[in-house]
Amino acid sequence: MYDKYQSPLSERYASKEMQYIFSPDKKFCTWRKLWIALAETEKELGLNITQEQIDELKENAENINYDVAKEREKLVRHDVMSHVYAYGVQCPKAKGIIHLGATSCYVGDNTDIIIMTEALRLVRKKLINVINELAKFADKYKAQPTLAFTHFQPAQPTTVGKRAALWMNEFVLDLEDLEHVIGTMKLLGSKGTTGTQASFLELFDGDQERIRQLDKKIAQKMGFEACHPVSGQTYSRKVDTRVLNVLAQIAASAHKFSNDIRLLQHLKEIEEPFEKNQIGSSAMAYKRNPMRSERIASLADYVIADALNPAIVASTQWFERTLDDSANKRISVPEGFLAVDGILDLCLNVVDGLVVYEKVIEKRLMSELPFMATENIMMDAVKAGGDRQELHEKIRQLSMEAGKNVKEKGLDNNLLELIAADPAFNMTLEELKKTMDPTKYVGRAKEQVEEYLEEVIRPILEENQDVLGMTAQINV
Q1: Which residues, other chains included, contact 32 with Cβ-Cβ below 8 Å and sequence gap of 6+?
Q2: What is the pLDDT of residues 301-318, one digit of tens each?
Q3: Fewer Cβ close by (within 10 Å): the C or N end of the chain?
Q4: pLDDT in tens, 358-382
Q5: CA 71 from centroid of its chain's CA atoms
Q6: ∠ CA 266-170-150, rounded to 5°
Q7: Which residues are part of the catalytic machinery?
Q8: In sequence order, what are the beta bridge partners of 356?
Q9: In 134-289, where do the E strands start and end?
Q10: How far apart are CA 299 and CA 336, in angstroms?
């Protein structure tokens, strides 16, 4: 166990559910289901295949004799034919009709599509649960004013809930893309060695209509609406590119979310969950490092880079097929899914346990609010008879002085006191302080959150009630 490489994706990050989807058991059981679907379809279309043979295949669909297949592969150096042989050992009556007319890609490529589709559905389920948790958080803090940043410099205030809506909206965009990809996944079907179905033309004595029915029936039996209408020996590797690209987009959204959480934790405004016995640093016992958000970012970097793999593979395929995709696909596709699975579990865990420090948020906002209130203060002074251009210049000068006091002298922001002391404004300090209500400066942030949750998020959640309620178990 400890003397060979083990993938951190399976040991530390991905869920058991996602790991099973990419397991040997799932793969080889799917191969056998595809052989059964092929045999059933060929029987239905008139080939000399008996129900007894079909029943024998079904009886042995899941008790895979790996030892036989492994020994056979040492001899023939071909994984598919080794499993055809092993299946035949268990099914002596059906041995002669297993894989009839098909190529290796019939099981290999169709299984890849089936597995990726199932994995995409699990990703969708987890993504919807992340959106659901963010919706709860956004609703709870929709009216909580907070300092907003552009260029990570203080800007006009927003609310904590509105910022969460921004994170949520990026995941919603990903959900739209994800649903498009899931909705357009098609099986390869049974196309033959170069995609021409020549072997089936021979099997069915040139009957074009029966061959047309072949792919339709196989797709239906495997739970798909259709097969690719044209292909070489393989489905187009552009499919893998589309799949990994949507995973990379989810990773990018999660990365952005994790960056904001890490910055907010630095500001002591919002923290990710920190367990009672968790150690933040081996040297600095007081530290509370945002390790989960950092892990999200780290895994996201991997997925974004990993999406380049299928793009290169798709661009370098030759004619009807080459095999330089094989080793790459075995690594890049499963690991992209395992990493995104870990990312979404982490996001779910972080959002579910976010800690908001409202007093810190309020203190930081109030320290900057005098600068942001200057436009309102100036307008009030103009209404009282002041000159707008003169007041604008005075505001500029006093703001510079207050900023210098904060930055160079380490003093509190005294802009209001400076304005109150200037007779041009004709306003008392008490009057000025009345302008310091943060809710006056957040615009429609609260209403935007309410409208967004009602018009965009609620329909998504209502449509997907059956998948809500997930919790995430973080391994380390």
Answers
A1: 57, 60, 61, 62, 64, 87
A2: 999 999 999 999 999 999
A3: N
A4: 999 999 999 889 888 888 888 888 8
A5: 40
A6: 45
A7: 151, 281
A8: 270
A9: 145-150, 153-159, 270-271
A10: 9
